[in-house]
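Sample pair:
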Amino acid sequence: MSQNTVEEPVAAKSRQPEEEPDPAPGEHGSGVGERAPGWLAQVPYFLVLSTMSAGIVVVAAAHFKRGPALIAGALMLAAVFRALLPADKTGMLAVRSRWIDVATLTGLAVLLIALAWVAPQLS
């Protein structure tokens, strides 16, 4: 095997493909192949976190049935996001493999629903 047979494929891989020029100011691209900004992947996480925070505030206001139910709803929302969205769109909700995340979040939600059901109503 000669050195040229090795260098040619390596040189072909190292060449950069020609990039299209940037559109002029005021012109928009065709929209094909444009990617969403990276922070957009954190929107599902923010929705779950804000719902969870609202549940904690409700528990702090001495509503021991509504608060855990709201937190359980946030966990179920996280499980739905984790089950349906692709891995690059779930942001920080993706911790382990998909089925373990969904099972864990669903299990915790069911336990919190049971806790909310048996909690005494203080009024």
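Helices lie at 3-14, 43-60, 66-84, 98-118.
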